[in-house]
Amino acid sequence: MSNNFRTTNSNGLINKDKKINFTFNGTIYHGYEGDTLASALIANGVHLVGRSFKYHRPRGFLGVGVEEPNAMVQLHDGNKSEPNIIATEVELVEGLKAKSQNCWPSVQFDIGEINNVLNRFFPAGFYYKTFMWPKSFWMKIYEPFIRKAAGMGKAPLLPDPDRYEHNYEHCDVLVVGSGPSGLASALAAAKNGARVILAEDKPNFGGSLLTDEVTIGNMSGKEWASDTISQLKSMPNVILKKRSQVFGYYDHNMTVMIERVSDHIENPSKYTPRQRLHYIRAGEVIVSTGSIERPISFGNNDRPGIVLASAAKEYMKVYETLVGKKPIIFTNNDTAYSTALEFIKNDIEPIIVDTRDSSNGELVKEVQQKGISIKFNSGIADTKGHLKINSAIIGKLDSSKESFISEETVECDCICMSGGWTPTVHLSSQAGNKLKFNDDIDAFVPDKKRQKETAIGAANGSFTLNQSLAEGFQVGFDLSNKFTDQNNPTNSPNSNEPSYEKHEKLWCMPLPSGKKPKRFIDFQNDVAVSDVELAIREGFRSIEHVKRYTTLGMAGDQGKTSNLNGLQYVSKIEKKIVPEVGHTTFRPPYTPVTIGAIVGREVGNHYLPTRKSPIHTWHEENNAVFVAAGLWQRPRYYPRGSEDMNSAVNREAANVRKNVGICDVTTLGKIDIKGPDAPEFLNRVYTNAWLKLPIGKARYGVMLREDGMVFDDGTTSRLSENHFHMTTTTAQAANVLSHLEYYLQVVWPDLDVNVLSTTEQWSGIAVAGPKSRDLLSKLFPDVDMSNEGLPFMGLVDSSIDGIKARIYRISFSGELAYEVNVESNYGLYMWKKIMEVGQSFDIQPYGTEALSTLRIEMGHVAGAELDGRTIPFDVGLNSMVSQKKDFIGKRSLSKDAFTESDRQTIVGLVPLDKKTKIPEGSHIIEDNSAVAPIPKLGHVSSSCWSVEYNNPFSIAIIKDGKNKIGKNLYAVSPLKDISIPVEVVSSHYVDPEGSRVRS
Amino acid sequence: MLEIKCPYCGKRSQNEFSYGGDATIKRPQLGEEISTEDWDNFVYYRDNPRGKHSELWHHVSGCRQWFKVSRDTATHEIFDTCKMNEDFNV
To answer: Which of A214, A435, A498, A510 could connect to A221 by a Cys-Cys bridge, CB 3.0–4.6 Å?
Structure first.
């Protein structure tokens, strides 16, 4: 029984000496090295692989490669589980586990098949019609039910353990597909000196040359392919990639290719990526993607065992596997006869059904010479066999070919069908190529290109070998000539292949007499001829609408086998020619791509860079809890013992108010500004005056956007006549630099100023609290720290232990405070030094939470207030706005809406019970008992526990705030279902006169 | 992903750059008396042409220079790029 469906020859590409065990739906089978999951299953007589999307009909393999619409399986289990994998693309590897999808309890007996019996309730568009009423049922009842019944595999719930990598490549010529034309063009381009990448989806190069009986020069096609690959391999200017699918064509000749690096390896190294995503920027792209065979629509044409003729041939020739032993070949053209001949070689006599009246093609004659009779002018009307086909009803067509005149039942175990060939134009179309319809082959081919892309060979509708090779060599040479000056053309060798007669324009069989079996067009999306008829009957005319209504050609499959048959049928009903019907859009990806590959290595800690201050290790050693501030990791608080966050934060903030605290402010943005026009530039950038800032002094500045909204704030100090040191908020550091560069380079290039980020050159340490002066006096005995020696907003340079330090007297906490700046490498040293000296002053480190508490109590604005929707007036910064000079954004401030007297302004809020914390983001309303919609006065921007008053305190921005001080309002949070009565107070809750900072 | 030729560094992928809007907008002079309408035109109003568009890009993960790009908004074709003090050749 095992491997009963193997051929006796060994001309294929599998290695029968190496057995590989695998499991499908719990049963252990074996195949051989070189098999795909599909070929190994077929060799074991397994055709039933899954259930269809909508009707849960039993389905088997239709194809042999990417075109496969049915055989999607779930691979592996646990965290390696992967749904919707096309079994024809999976190389067999020891221990592989696969199972069927979309079936329950098993693929043999599937409850969902009731849908097939009830199919008259599931016509095209049934979602839109059936489930519209009652509306409330959609989310809770219909949608979950449909999700469960329809659909495909299951997404794994665990993180993907595999490694994926990204790679960027540049080349002169990218050749997609290694059939005869692809090999020819790659060889010609490479011999002419161009840098070439040749990509092949399959594990073997050669494309149709691996299965077609042809000769090139004095070699067989297969030998020529292998010889050409050897030549290419030896050339340093060529990269050969197999198992690599170019799935997307984007702007400026950027293509994306997925390479299956180790899926086929039993125990890959831990560091070998599973798959690699290549971004290839190619000078020219040659699309030699070949063509895909078309199915034919006939009654029950989806039963397991019904395959494409080309697939049957490839299974025999490459995988030494028989899709069946009692085959019927059903065709409208000559190419399927090569499949018939392959069966005959394996001592199997096929029944041949041909829709045409006759054919004098070479292969047809060869078959006839072998004594096989051909049923011309015939078609398959219907098939039988529940889980596997067991017989077909063959009908004699009448002269119009619109009905059968007689029918007979014939036993069979497979049908190999061929409706001719469709060029694979997906990539060209993605590149923006306007396709044209080619009447000779009844298919669309690339025409007017928008990018540097050229289709050749079968992808270009050139179906003969001679044409394909000639185009390949010519185009490969011509395009490579753009990049080299070697001018070294390669001649196309002579080739021989059988001649073919024309196909018949017939892709849909009439119904058998007295029956209405489903005749499928799109197997993956379960779209039958009757669905297309219904869509048109219901008035859908545009092919894009027919596509959406029926789902024809959608999803992972992108209409690879169904597109043209759908269009042909629409054109037949509409009595239009196909080009008038048009075609739908081909979208990337051409084949499904694992999300992990798209994400690449940017997972976990690699998701974003992590920025750490030079003092980071100290924070870690001292039990800091960190918080992300942009890319930075900042200490949030330093819990002691069993302290929770609130107690730690209160302790840290209170200690600043009482003794002295130390805080790592290295993350603040710092920009060095130099040049004779630097004062003038700052004067234009900031809202306040800068021309007269004395050397050795810092000043607080506010900058706006041109629309008048506050952009950023910070202190900037003058180090010398033309040299300034600007600080920005941590969050806006990068944006402020770009902003300054914009004005210097684009708007005022006449200003002689240079700006440079020095954020990472300086380490900043804030020392804040009433004891900070005594501490720093002890640490820097040479510096006069008195109010006269170093006044508020002053700065002084000093050093200890040979380390230069710049000491600013600035304060964010509202207390007497300093900021010590040293070169980054000495940040940790200085921090430890301050801690050491600070012990006798009861110093404690404080994190960002205490930092916020301190600034909120003081009414200092920060990011939550400067949210891009506030002008200086709104946040109490009107005194910062110069009336005497112009600056960025000033004109906006005099616009009507910005001068209204009842604009939103910043206020403080205290809960009346002095206990309930007000959640940030709460709405402020006047009347708690009003009926919705209640007018909103504003919102709470920042909240803290005031360590000064020992009750909650918040900053809010509310309409006409300055006239609401003293009033009682409500802070409400409908999400948390709370309403807190609050009193409006000044936003400067602690030390409103600002005496402490100057003390 | 577009490929943009920085006039200082050469061709680089789009992910090194950030977009900076219409390059033809001129900021009013400092201190200039200007109507609200004209100011609003400067701050807010932009044409949204289909076709050739002169725009600013910033080589933010590179040389940090702002420069001009002439690009087709429908096809993404880039006709030319130049420094701020230069004019397009095409």
So the answer is: A214
